Backbone:
């Protein structure tokens, strides 16, 4: 009787193992394809480790559908701005043209993109865009140091304020300022705040992402994009 049960169950066990193996193989191919496209589009120095979640997933992948996909990368460059600690999580993803060949464009139902740019990286970006100033970031506030001419003389200005995204610009607006280490009189303070207001073009994120937020955190700017029904173009 036991031998008969084994004889009956053996084909089902073999089919189950083949099905699991096929799921793993197809998922690996899709993960590798997405990782290659992400490395190119996000200008990553190394191919990221992409994780596709959900089982069984073989039929979804063959139809170009993914319940959930995520990846982390240590760094990338967005139009001259070096960022680090990139994390992407995507839900309800459909790939135009499938996942196993050709260029990839992902229709994303929902997702998030998170990254950070350090003080030093932002300073280099500012310098490249003609801004002679440095920024130090802290939780909820930013300190700008700049040498500016006031009333015909050069002075060291230290301004404290907040950064925000305004349209396509990163804007720093000072709330207080010192001139050569001292609090200036009101008329000079108003001019010093004007001189330390900074506007610089923000880089575009890869994949066609245009809307994202910026926030000062300790030692860096946090960049966050929330995706809703977004077409993520990974063909670049």
Residues:
């Amino acid at each position: 009787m036991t031998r008969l049960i084994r004889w009956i169950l053996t084909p089902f066990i073999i089919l189950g193992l083949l099905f699991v193996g096929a799921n793993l193989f197809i998922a690996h191919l899709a993960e590798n394809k997405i990782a290659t496209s992400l490395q190119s589009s996000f200008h990553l120095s190394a191919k990221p480790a992409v994780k596709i979640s959900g089982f069984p997933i073989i039929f979804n992948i063959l139809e170009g559908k993914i319940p959930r996909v995520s990846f982390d990368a240590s760094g990338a460059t967005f139009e001259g701005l070096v960022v680090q600690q990139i994390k992407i999580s995507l839900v309800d993803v459909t790939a135009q043209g499938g996942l196993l060949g050709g260029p990839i464009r992902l229709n994303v139902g929902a997702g998030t993109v998170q990254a950070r740019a350090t003080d030093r990286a932002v300073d280099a970006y500012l310098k490249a865009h003609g801004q002679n100033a440095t920024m130090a970031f802290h939780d909820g506030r930013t300190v700008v140091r700049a040498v500016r001419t006031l009333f015909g003389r050069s002075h060291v200005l230290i301004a404290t304020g907040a950064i925000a995204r305004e349209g396509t610009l990163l804007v720093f607006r000072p709330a207080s300022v010192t001139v050569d280490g001292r609090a200036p009189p009101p008329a000079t303070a108003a001019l010093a705040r004007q001189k330390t207001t900074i506007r610089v073009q923000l880089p575009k994120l890869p994949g066609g992402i245009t809307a994202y937020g910026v926030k000062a955190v300790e030692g860096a700017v946090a960049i966050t994009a929330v995706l809703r029904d977004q077409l993520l173009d990974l063909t670049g």
